[in-house]
Amino acid sequence: xxxxxxxxxxxxxxxxxxxxxxxxxxxxxxxxxxxxxxxxxxxxxxxxxxxxxxxxxxxxxxxxxxxxxxxxxxxxxxxxxxxxxxxxxxxxxxxxxxxxxxxxxxxxxxxxxxxxxxxxxxxxxxxxxxxxxxxxxxxxxxxxxxxxxxxxxxxxxxxxxxxxxxxxxxxxxxxxxxxxxxxxxxxxxxxxxxxxxxxxxxxxxxxxxxxxxxxxxxxxxxxxxxxxxxxxxxxxxxxxxxxxxxxxxxxxxxxxxxxxxxxxxxxxxxxxxxxxxxxxxxxxxxxxxxxxxxxxxxxxxxxxxxxxxxxxxxxxxxxxxxxxxxxxxxxxxxxxxxxxxxxxxxxxxxxxxxxxxxxxxxxxxxxxxxxxxxxxxxxxxxxxxxxxxxxxxxxxxxxxxxxxxxxxxxxxxxxxxxxxxxxxxxxxxxxxxxxxxxxxxxxxxxxxxxxxxxxxxxxxxxxxxxxxxxxxxxxxxxxxxxxx
Length: 484
Ligand SMILES: [Zn+2]
Description:
- Helix content is 37%, strand content 25%.
- It is of the alpha+beta class.
- Zinc ion binds at residues 434-435, 437, 440, 467, 469-470, 472.
């Protein structure tokens, strides 16, 4: 292929809509053209391509490091759940039944199987057999797996699909106190993944009774706000108390030799987080990968002049060796122009680009270009490694700060329902007081399509305010928004 043709190819390959003008179309183009994901012939499902999987792998690796610190072990349980297991915890069964896919084939006893929409029941059946004494506790197990929630029809890449990948942690404790403390600890781990790895600011809080997990006594979540004004629940941690332990007959002999019921929690994050990366950080040129989560932190592109080609490629390869700790892409391909390559790595969101041209070689320097700001700097080779380390950290901070500033500006505090409705219409997240009654919350949802997000740990006290919708005394203050 001639170079000219490839440049034409890029015109159709680049993002053709602006993020602010048509965000759903922009989002889809970024996912497809940065080769994160593709549509699948199976309705409601998606294909995660290597670039998308590399983002998931960064999350998996960091979270596995946390799990190790927290003494949580990885394990694997079956994809299929017997119908009888599923129905043992009434609230749980009721909450999940509409979403479950059933296998047509039945087992020897004529029982049919669900494809897991979440694994509490199948795991706790095993826990009932394994846990005998206080010495078996705490039991902390995590599994990385796929999940199926059948009701999804229209796939929204990473954000909504019938099948997705996640981790689900399931722990068992001797005491309520320990259980509750660790439920919050895993939520903090999710904050670390979101903010410290992915540079996505989140609010930590408690879900309302209406929005909590089916079978939990309390659900905590981390919530973020996307640039289209929709909230995204980034992770949840559920205090299950003793409900499942009763249904699945999990018990242990305590230190006094008495028969006791343990306490449980479960918690999860999913490939949804990749959608949040795209929406939060991407721009009109495409994806921006938060540097700490980037597999290739740098793309090195030679500026090739035919008469000095061999020398330039050799020097570029040397720069590649110098920067090996950043796992650079060293793109010395001769059949693509440097301009084409610049566009390619911008589209794919590689955090930094290093250019090596004949003049740079002469001056013993390289050109470093940031993906987030586009800032271009000439850096002496002996300072290049340190400069890249510093710039990647500065980029993480800038991405986080930029997102935080946008989110703060998109949160509106309201005291009356007219202002509430207007703010939701204006694609804002609302912070307001609420009576805490289920019917009132449902009514708000029916009128505005906004759902409650969370009662924040900081600032959720009601004071003397009244409910934004029904004027009864407020029980708490919380966030509402339309959501993914
Ligand atoms: Zn109310």
